[in-house]
Amino acid sequence: PMIRLDGEDKIYLSLEEKYNAIIENIIEVNKKGNPILVGTISVETSELISKKLKDKKIDHRVLNARQNEQEAEIIAQAGRLGSVTIATNMAGRGTDIVLGGLPEDSESKKQVLNIGGLHVIGTERHESRRIDNQLRGRCARQGDPGSTQFFLSLEDPLMQIFAPDRMKNLMKSIGGMQPGEAIEHRMLTNAIERAQRRVEGRNFDIRKRILEFDDVLNEQRNVIYAQRKEILNETNISELVRTMRVDVMSNQFQKYLPEYEIESNWKIKDFEQILEKEHDLKTDVKTILDNQELDLEKTNLELIGILEKKYEEKANEHKDIFSEIEKQIVLQVIDQSWKNHINSLEQLRQNIGFRSYAGKDPRLEYKRESFEMFQVLLEDIKFESIRYLSKVTVSSNANTLSEPESKKLVSKHADAPSLFDSKNIEGPEIREKPKVEEGNRKLRRMQAKANRKKRR
Predict the structure, then answer these.
(1) In terms of C-beta distances under 8 Å and separation of at least 24 residues, what long-range contacts does 331-335 make, across chains too?
(2) Which of 113, 121, 111, 114 is nearest to 85 (CA)?
(3) Whole-number pLDDT of residue 71
(4) Residues of the chain where predicted confidence (pLDDT) is lower than 50
(5) 140-189 pLDDT tens trace
(6) pLDDT single digits (tens) 360-386
(7) Bridge pairing between strands 84-87 and 145-153
(8) 180 phi and psi angles, rounded to 5 deg
(9) What was the pLDDT predicted at 422?
(10) Cα distances (angstroms) measured from residue 278 to each of 208, 304, 356, 389, 390
(11) Neighbouring-strand partners of residue 86
């Protein structure tokens, strides 16, 4: 059975009074010969107590992140008769302090047992009761005796949350609490534990909310990665490109020539400019509309057919390498769009908490908006892929394919109008240069693969 003696928490007005009381307790217990373990919450606190003990000329060892090389040796001697060890949470769970020290000596262990075993001192309460209980558990192990004592002050971080400055003033005026005096009562200990439970509950809610946000991003990541993997495994994605082109053209056609708007509201000139700018297609949409007797569906299909014919002519000129060009461009667009989308989601997550002021649940708002942003992302991937493929040109001078300059892209933020900045160029150009020893290894391999297919 456990025979550990847990003292009630001692609460002081200030940090200085608390540290002085800790030093006095160490001196008192050390005179009896009990080994002492002082648990601190930070390296700074451990070094402060160490300085005070040096002033009192009390031998001790310090175990923190700055003395981690000596950890095994310090822990081995922490149970020795009359030893004083100051440690951070490094001496928490999993640390077994052998009474009498190592190597084990039955006589030394017996002496320590007779005077009450290891004495553990806590310099303050952690936000988590689990860490406090782990510190208490360093003594009175396997039926051995032991004792614990926690020292707190009204200036500790945990007490500042639940006992602000007015509580300190109240204790001085009404309670008549004098400097150096401590409050010690079971009710106070229980109140502090209740405060820890509230902090633990708050921290749990924070972790739960972060996990919910991460789940949203993870689901979207799985969709994008699955699409990317599918493209990587395909040898030819011309059918995918064709489907994307139909979707993009249909969306743009519906935007500028809405089906349920009167003819005077159609933006035919704007649509022609978009076709020329984004798809490198000069055509008279008004003439096609008149030829189709203003049938929007047939007009849209005819425009898609014109665009496909022009694209296929370009692809047929360079059959050997064009399928690989399509894959590289689409993959590049997916990667760049996904990086921009992650930036946008991070900005949304940082600011979504303000929705609570409008009486809305930030979690539901985040899920709703992130889904809408993901839908936009998928459409942007289609649009940018088709835009880029429509404008790309391949000029053949010899057999080696050079890497397009537009591949050297920098991640842009969510407010960027486009993934590829094409303001100052007619369109990205892929040039075939004479074969040389130095060059792009990946592209040479791609050309060699195409040549092998030719021979077959």
Answers:
(1) 331/228, 331/231, 331/232, 332/407, 332/409, 333/381, 333/384, 333/385, 333/388, 333/419, 334/224, 334/227, 334/228, 334/231, 334/381, 335/228
(2) 121
(3) 81
(4) 398-439
(5) 888 889 999 999 988 888 887 766 666 667 666 655 667 778 888 787 78
(6) 888 889 999 999 999 999 999 998 998
(7) unpaired
(8) 95, -15
(9) 40
(10) 44, 14, 41, 10, 8
(11) 38, 62
Q: Give the Å distances, CA to CA, from 399 to 117, 268, 313, 428.
A: 84, 42, 20, 19
Two structure tokens written together for 66: 């700055």
CA pair distance 253, 295, nearest whole angstrom: 12
- Classify residue 65 as left (phi > 0), alpha (psi -120 to 50) or beta: alpha
- For the chain, the straight-line distance linking the first and the last C-alpha, in angstroms and rounded, comes to 83
Q: What is the pTM of this model?
A: 0.58
Q: pLDDT at position 120, please?
A: 95
Quote the CA–CA distance of 178 and 172 in Å, as a whole number. 7
Q: What is the 3-state secondary structure (H, E, C) of the chain?
A: CCEEEECCCEEECCHHHHHHHHHHHHHHHHHHCCCEEEECCCHHHHHHHHHHHHHCCCCCEEECHHHHHHHHHHHHCCCCCCCEEEECHHHCCCCCCCCCCCCCCHHHHHHHHHCCCEEEEECCCCCCHHHHHHHHCCCCHHHCEEEEEEEEECCCHHHHHHCCHHHHHHHHHCCCCCCCCCECCHHHHHHHHHHHHHHHHHHHHHHHHHHHHHHHHHHHHHHHHHHHHHHHHCCCCHHHHHHHHHHHHHHHHHHHCCCCCCHHHCCHHHHHHHHHHHHCCCCCHHHHHHHCCCCHHHHHHHHHHHHHHHHHHHHHHCHHHHHHHHHHHHHHHHHHHHHHHHHHHHHHHHHHHHHHHHCCCHHHHHHHHHHHHHHHHHHHHHHHHHHHHHHCEEEECCCEECCCHHHCCCCCCCCCCCCCCCCCCCCCEEEEECCCCCCCHHHHHHHHHHHHHHHC
Note whether 137 and 94 are within 8 A (CB).
no
Tokens of 390: 């429509």
Spell out the domains of the chain, with CATH numbers in brackets: 3-184 (3.40.50.300), 212-455 (1.10.3060.10)
* Whole-angstrom distance, CA of residue 315 vs CA of residue 238: 10
Tell me if 150 sits within 8 A of 132, measured CB to CB. yes
